[in-house]
Amino acid sequence: MKKIVKVGIFISKAIISLIILSILLTIFINIHVKSSTEDMIMSAEESLDKDADCILVLGAGVRRDGSPSPMLEDRILTGIDLYNKGVSDRLIMSGDHSTKGYDEVNTMKRYAVERGIPSEHVFMDHAGISTYDSIYRAKEIFQADKIIIVTQQYHLYRAIYTARSLGIEAYGVSADIRVYAGQDLREIREKAARIKDFFMAIFKPDPKFLGDTIPVSGNGDITNDN
Asked: Which of 120, 114, 137, 121 lies closest to 59 in space, CA to CA?
């Protein structure tokens, strides 16, 4: 009986130790990801001299009627503003279009083109189903070595960290134009996502989809749906 009690105590201590280590690891990774990238988040004006290959706009939710959610709309508007300011003459709209019934990227491109951006300057990455996949494909598929990433600031730290880990010279411009409902929950989820992508950046697995190269220096209409 005493032996069983001792084993139980040992297991309990081991579980508590693992929980403490997990909490400490979570704190360390989040601090590291943020502190190592915060200097690479800049204003639109500061990004003008970076000579970027493209502006990478990361996808977000689309409504049932095909219009962008507030977060996505602000990302697109920020990307358009950077284009018009001359930060780069190429936009990559990267989002989830993995099923016929859900399409972020056509919404993103249509929104930009309707506001005066030439269609041939807007590329769609139909397989940007995660932040990691979007960044990886920007380099390997679209051949971009220097990018300006557009998303909300809480997300920029992870996106820039991933890009830098993959050998891309990346900077970020925040798309925080308004206050977003449910942001507290997003912040919590982002802490877990940083841990996941921290290890993804170490092991560098291939994304779910790759494919033929589509140099961003070319014509974006090649990425249009047939």
From this structure: 137
